[in-house]
Amino acid sequence: MENYLITSIIAATLAAGTPLIIVAMGELVTEKAGVLNLGAEGMMSVGAVVGFLLGFSGINPLLAVLAGMAAGCAMSLVFGFLTLTMLANQVASGLALAIFGIGLSAFIGKSYEAAPAPAVLPTPVPILADIPFIGPAFFNHQSLVYASWLLVVGVIWFLYRSRWGLVLRAVGESPSAAHAVGYRVIFLRYLAVAFGGAMAGAGGAFLSVYYTPLWSEGMVAGRGWIALVLVVFATWRPLRVVFGAYLFGGVMILQLFVQGAGLKLDVPSQLLSSLPYLATIVVLVLISRNVSMIRLNAPFSLGQPFRPDA
């Protein structure tokens, strides 16, 4: 019984951390290109409602997630036009995008509040899923959980092992130098912004199609903001982002277990609900206290506009 409980908590933690990993990896690539997009919450919300609408209609869940990705990507391109072409302030534009996305998703999904969509069953990994304890905990998940692991590997390879990853990081460090040697800085930043938006949409669609197959206003519940925090306080290191995402997921699952088990604690339920956010921020602040390391890893031109010479 005890092993089953631990296995269930681990499995639930991995599922809860998956949308954060997907969104944070997209934001990481965006920021490595020197662009600060604070609109993750809004893009996740729109991706969630679009994905749910297709999932609710009976379309293949993966196609529903692709639709959510397209919606998030479209919103990010609006942000890209404002900030990269029109040189609007990135912080103000990102906050406006977040507010707009939250409101738009609430409007679109109003008539579908609490309507359940078909549940997506786990996809066990052959042989590995049969390993005692380890199999049910790590290899009996929905397909997007495995995809998030591949995404992390892909982002690490792209940023640190590929030529174009080096170019993207160069654009984030010194766009003028990258432009001087012939790279299309604005185009590359558009691609990074589009990727970040697509991942935010995918993270939102995972919530409404896979994780809890229903739509309700505010179901993203601050995960977009947490993903932004993860990237910064993890000092732009992908593996630290993964650690922070699973930390958030683990604390969330534990507080749900405490409330669901009906344990008598002299603690307000609101405080228990806030624990995942508090724990994630506190731990990430502690591991990022090395200011010199933050400065070393932060893209030098992050948030700074760039206009190529005519």
The major sheet is characterized as: 2 strands, antiparallel
CATH class category label: Mainly Alpha
| Strand order in the largest sheet | 1-2
By secondary-structure content and strand pairing, the structural class works out as: mainly alpha
Number of domains: 1
- Strand content is under 5%
What share of residues is helical? over 70%
The radius of gyration computed from the alpha-carbon positions, rounded to a whole number of angstroms, is 20 Å
Overall shape: it is: globular
Q: In CATH terms, what is the fold-level topology?
A: ABC transporter involved in vitamin B12 uptake, BtuC
User: How many beta-strand segments?
Assistant: 2
| The CATH architecture | Orthogonal Bundle
Q: What sequence of helices (H) and strands (E) makes up the elements?
A: HHHHEHEHHHHHHHH
Distance between the termini: 69 Å
Q: Kindly state the mean pLDDT as a whole number?
A: 90
Low-confidence residue ranges: none
Structure annotation, total helices: 13
InterPro entries: ABC_transp_permease
Pfam family, one: BPD_transp_2
Transmembrane segments: 6-26, 38-56, 62-84, 91-108, 143-160, 190-212, 218-236, 243-261, 267-287
Main location: membrane
